[in-house]
Amino acid sequence: MSNKITNQTRRILKSSSGKVKAVTKTIKHESSEIEYDPEKKVKVISLGGLFEIGKNTWVFECGDDIMLVDAGLAFPTTSMIGVDIVLPKLNYIVENKDKIRAMIVTHGHEDHIGGIVPILREINIPIIYAPGLAYALVQNKLREANILNQKLVWTKARDKVKVGKYFSVQYVRNNHSIADSFCLIIDTPAGRIVHSGDFKFDHSPIENQYFDIRSIAKAGDEGVDLLISDSTNAERAGYTPSEKAVIPKIKELIFNAQKKLLITTFASQVSRVKLVLQLALQANKKVSIFGRSMINLANISKELGYISIPDNFIVKQEEINKIPPEDLVILTTGSQGEQFAALSRIARGEHKYVKIQPGDQVIVSASPIPGNEKSVNGLVNNLFARGADVIYGKDHIIHVSGHASQEEQKMLINLCRPNNFMPCHGEYRMLLKHGETGVKCGVDPEKIFVLDNGDILEMQDGKCQVLDRVDAGILLIDNDNVGRLDDDIILERRMILSDGFILIIVNINAYGQFCVTPEIETKGILLPYGFDEHSFRKGLIKLCNSAQKSLEETLKGEPVKHIEDYSVKLQTLISHNLYSFLDNSARRYPLVEVMVLNNSGAVQASVAGL
Predict the structure, then answer these.
(1) To which H or E segment does residue 42 belong?
(2) Is residue 72 within 8 Å of 48, Cβ to Cβ?
(3) Do the Cβ atoms of 36 and 29 come closer than 8 Å?
(4) In the chain, which residues have pLDDT < 50?
(5) CA 505 to CA 490: how far, in whole Å?
(6) Is 421 left (phi over 0), alpha (psi -120 to 50) or beta?
(7) N or C end: fewer C-beta atoms under 10 angstroms in the chain?
(8) Rounded to whole angstroms, how far apart are CA atoms 305 and 301?
(9) Distance CA 48, CA 54 (A)
(10) What CATH number should be reported for the domain holding residue 571?
């Protein structure tokens, strides 16, 4: 069975590739610690990270063993009112929780580890393997969530871990925008899988932590049945620059700053944070760190030895006004324009300790995550409006991506020479473009799988096919400590944000008559043309009276026998009359709540329009 997306993609790949000879290899798997069994089947399922950026969560299943790889979150879109984080649906994991043997973490970015705590609140994971920095970050998350008994194991480059009976995983160091980032070589009874994780090839990394090309090449020589590879920069030709490319410009800005200098980047970009600290130290300037995640990351990095700085070099936030502006560098969160991040509050003039003065400089050493462009633009506009000189965008070499461009993606494909190829970590156009790159490198278009979250890719005897689907989707979290949001709540929030809110309270007696004049409360309502507030309220009361009179006539002077049913009818009729009026007069559709108090004192309420 093959899904429509993969079939459509293959038609595109075949039409655009010309005549490309596919490469088929003999699979040896000489170093595998798992016995090869042509009868065994392995399911590969992505619950998040396909057709999107974020919430990367993978399920690898064989027999009674399930191995999870990463558990990430995504940032909410602007339409997700009041949502803090977005997680993948966990139904399949919860339904098969007794099969779960371990989780493998590739690196410490939030879109790969931000969902670990929510998953642990649903199920038990016997053991979590994580490399250095990711280990420390996950450990900190567990501590904050008061999850104290979780078994967490620190893994290092070339470590091999056995998961259940059917999985063996080797950690292979790669390059990315965070320290301790790894590819995975996964051996199974059905064949060998290479999962790239997030990667690029940086041939001159700042920390001299080079991509372990040798281990990947060895796996390719022995045979890779399936390559799952990062597609984020699949549309970019050439190579992603080295992290060292940002040094000259950032050094120039730090050394030449005549007033306060604020620098924002991803908190997890340890090498960038370390670079800023080192350059500020060389320039004989002081640094103050703003933002909880930035402070936590700096402390963790210092404990692990990634960052080494003098004790008196960091200035407390409340003491920055004691430092001459030209001698101060502020390192802050907020590169994505997050509403409550430190830089966003500074840009709005709401921060307790930092006020932008004309001539201050702000370096945005990050690119917008897809979907965050509007927020970042708003942040930059606010900073400019306060007189700051903002340095941002591609014209200034102050940021480089942590993801491979096309030539590096070709390099990984050619090192692995996979029989089957699955692009991952990207929106559809990125996955498609990566598929085209695979064809150029000799992968048979019939063996390229562009799938959506929830699709099941089954591998047996080194061959892959698409099966059915599992339940996949999103969970919207309004503060991790509060709970999940469903679609109805989000719709209500959108209606209030867009068109306001109307509350109508009516009180009826045993004969269905109003005991008092209906009470009207409105919030955020744009009045229809020709109405002032008094006439608008008067009109709403008239609509309520009309609905009540029409129902009262059906009673023919008798008491109401079923007050609950009558209340629901009255609610529905009032709501219908109100929406008809608003539709005709204003083309507005606010959230409407009608509350009926009956003669027994009971309250019946409904939210109309959903």
Answers:
(1) strand 41-48
(2) yes
(3) yes
(4) 1, 20, 23, 26, 480-483, 601-603, 605, 607-610
(5) 24
(6) beta
(7) N
(8) 6
(9) 7
(10) 3.10.20.580
Please give the sequence-ordered ranges of beta strands (E in DSSP) within 119-270, or none if there are none: 128-131, 152-155, 160-163, 167-173, 182-188, 191-195, 226-230, 261-264
On whether the CB atoms of residues 599 and 508 are closer than 8 A, the answer is yes
C-alpha span between 19 and 487 (Å, rounded): 47
Residues 247 and 223 in one domain: no
The span from the CA of 9 to the CA of 357, in Å, is 53
177 with 127, same domain: the answer is yes
Please state the domain count of the chain: 3
Alpha carbons 109 and 157: distance in angstroms, whole number: 18
Q: Residue 396 domain-assigned?
A: no
Angle at 443 between CA 49 and CA 407, to 5 degrees: 70
Helix, strand or coil for residue 200? strand
Contact 278, 328 (CB under 8 A): no
pLDDT value, residue 287: 95
Burial status of residue 325 (CB atoms within 10 A of its CB: 0-12, 13-18, 19 or more): middle
Per-residue pLDDT at 1: 41
**Tens of pLDDT along 575-594?**
888 888 877 776 777 888 88
Alpha-carbon span 454 to 59, nearest angstrom: 10
